[in-house]
User: Fold Replication-associated recombination protein A from Proteiniclasticum sediminis.
Amino acid sequence: MEPLASKLRPRTLDEVLGQTHLIGEGKLLTSMVKSGTLMNMIFYGPPGIGKTTVARLLADLTDRKFISLNASTDSLKDVKNALDELNMFMGVHGLVLYIDELHLMNRRNQQVLLDYMESGRVVLVGSTTENPHFAVFKALVSRAIVVEFKPLESADILKGLHRAMDFYREEAGLDEVKISQTSLNFITSLANGDLRKALNNLELVLLSKAKTNARVVEVEEEDVERILQKKIINFDLDGDAHYDLLSAFQKSIRGSDENAALLYLAMLLKGGDLISVNRRLLVIAAEDIGLANPQAISIVKACTDAALVLGLPEARIPLAQAVILLATSPKSNSVITAVDAAMHAVDTTPVLELPLHLRDGHYAGAKALVRMQAYVYPHGHKNNYVKQVYMPKGLEKMKFYRSGSNKYEEATRLYWKKIKDEETSGES
Assistant:
């Protein structure tokens, strides 16, 4: 039986959920289809968000034959056979060769593709869940456009689930399919941006409740728990309960209570909410820890990247590492305070005129302009510092950044105080 996710594959770009940065009037993929010209591309993003579907659509909508290979299972012989039979399979305007899991293709196989890419006989569309700049042969990356696909938002997943329920109802000849919004939210949260996973889970639940000659399929929350073997936490994806939990999570880390933070992390993960947790941890690293532990954001980024690669349940381990690191780190909000003060100054100052000596002096004719003043190059001076005006007129005495009372920021403050005091005393 064909899976529901396969039956619901979009037939036009407009039916593709999410990826609004790529699809729509004037956007990259829509423009390619309108012009009928496809470039070699590498689709980069997590699984289940439409990379294969979009590649197939691009071929169909530009009258090209579509051939799909998988780098994890197809051999060099399979690649060569597909390419050597181009004339037999060529569509009206050529051929799209789609290679899934491109990062798993060895370098020799990737090398084979180069000649065909350069000849123009084939449009290569590779797909990878790994960063192609690190995981794919550099010569291949340099001949292709890297197109990043983003995880689907909860609203996109929910839209896909409602579309699937309508399709299932019509296909099965039912009068109604009943399932609570809480259950749909839960299925959405378990998917972590993977529409295919959400549709598979929905189909599993619906099939478990299907009865011969029944005109209505009614799914209870306990049915979802039983079939998916997960306990539903009242998880309102777009409501107060969800944001209350995220708020408690951040405030516990900010308050240096690692135990409370771990509890709220567990609650979020039990609800399947991996994406919101990742985003919030990165915000916390910059907003609440900031320069008190400058390395924290790099470590947290590594932890959240690892969580996305691992998926649940293993994702809980690097995320817990990030939570404990942040909760036990010294705290400083000097970064967010400084940038917000600068944003306020921009909003409330009518005219911000750049100092003349800071303006670009490299373009042709700049030196001939009388208004250009001498810029003093700091690296030609002691400690790579020289006193000069950098602020626009009227804001010379404005200070946005005020260092926090922690080891790193205090050391930095004293370092610059010493240098600037020496510069000032040298002038007198």
In short: The CA atoms of residues 360 and 408 lie 34 Å apart. Residues 407-427 form the longest helix (21 residues).
